[in-house]
């Protein structure tokens, strides 16, 4: 299988406990003195023990090239990635990561930026806040968590140059300090771009509120950390035709479309295998995809001209792929 092969060897220079279930890691280059520059919202693929590869957002200031910083929640429902980070990546550990990629970039044309984070979703928004503050750009940051003692990076945000633009909202606090999503959106300046990251329910609530208020999709930016559960009991087989050659590739009921393409020898890049990063996005020339990703917008899904073969399937007997 094809994964991104541009890797960097790094060492865990320091590790901090942010909350009882969140740690942050500072990664520095093993060879040389600098790492590739990155932009706010970028992430890296982290190669973990046991062959696992997971994506984590970079949360330090984008101008820094002497280190990368990530924050990781130990998730009880983890598929092994967060557990490996918390148990195996100790100070001094060397590991491989990918070069940074950005699928959650800030808009250069936005007059105002509204950053909404739920829990560990604060990580990419920290880098955004750092960048926007350095640029003197207009923005506001809201962070929703269960309680103050479960909130990561509080000292960092409190001491930041943008502290007055940052707001914390705790589930166990009084009603007055809780985030009113609809009101927050209604009070945003005209043309504001929204950026949201966090648990599925939080993100759905924010995005649905934006759509209900008439915000166009191009002003609603999001990044998912994990895919929503999918029921595979009704999955059936289907076929994929390669448009350039006419070759037909069958996909078994218990097989992903991406696995079938790789098995047939096609070099399709992949990363998350959950339909959240967009790496394996493939064009569709005919047929109707059964979209199961969290990457495409509703309008992009409706167009039926692309799909994510790592998780999506077909509603029609055959998909003709633009390959």
TrEMBL record:
<keyword id="KW-0285">Flavoprotein</keyword>
<dbReference type="InterPro" id="IPR006058">
    <property type="entry name" value="2Fe2S_fd_BS"/>
</dbReference>
<dbReference type="GO" id="GO:0018489">
    <property type="term" value="F:vanillate monooxygenase activity"/>
</dbReference>
<dbReference type="InterPro" id="IPR039261">
    <property type="entry name" value="FNR_nucleotide-bd"/>
</dbReference>
<keyword id="KW-0479">Metal-binding</keyword>
<keyword id="KW-0411">Iron-sulfur</keyword>
<dbReference type="InterPro" id="IPR054582">
    <property type="entry name" value="DmmA-like_N"/>
</dbReference>
<dbReference type="InterPro" id="IPR017938">
    <property type="entry name" value="Riboflavin_synthase-like_b-brl"/>
</dbReference>
<protein>
    <submittedName>
        <fullName>Vanillate O-demethylase ferredoxin subunit</fullName>
        <ecNumber>1.14.13.82</ecNumber>
    </submittedName>
</protein>
<dbReference type="InterPro" id="IPR017927">
    <property type="entry name" value="FAD-bd_FR_type"/>
</dbReference>
<dbReference type="InterPro" id="IPR012675">
    <property type="entry name" value="Beta-grasp_dom_sf"/>
</dbReference>
<dbReference type="Pfam" id="PF00111">
    <property type="entry name" value="Fer2"/>
</dbReference>
<dbReference type="InterPro" id="IPR050415">
    <property type="entry name" value="MRET"/>
</dbReference>
<feature type="domain" description="FAD-binding FR-type">
    <location>
        <begin position="5"/>
        <end position="107"/>
    </location>
</feature>
<dbReference type="InterPro" id="IPR036010">
    <property type="entry name" value="2Fe-2S_ferredoxin-like_sf"/>
</dbReference>
<keyword id="KW-0408">Iron</keyword>
<dbReference type="Pfam" id="PF22290">
    <property type="entry name" value="DmmA-like_N"/>
</dbReference>
<keyword id="KW-0001">2Fe-2S</keyword>
<feature type="domain" description="2Fe-2S ferredoxin-type">
    <location>
        <begin position="238"/>
        <end position="323"/>
    </location>
</feature>
<keyword id="KW-0288">FMN</keyword>
<dbReference type="InterPro" id="IPR001041">
    <property type="entry name" value="2Fe-2S_ferredoxin-type"/>
</dbReference>
<keyword id="KW-0560">Oxidoreductase</keyword>
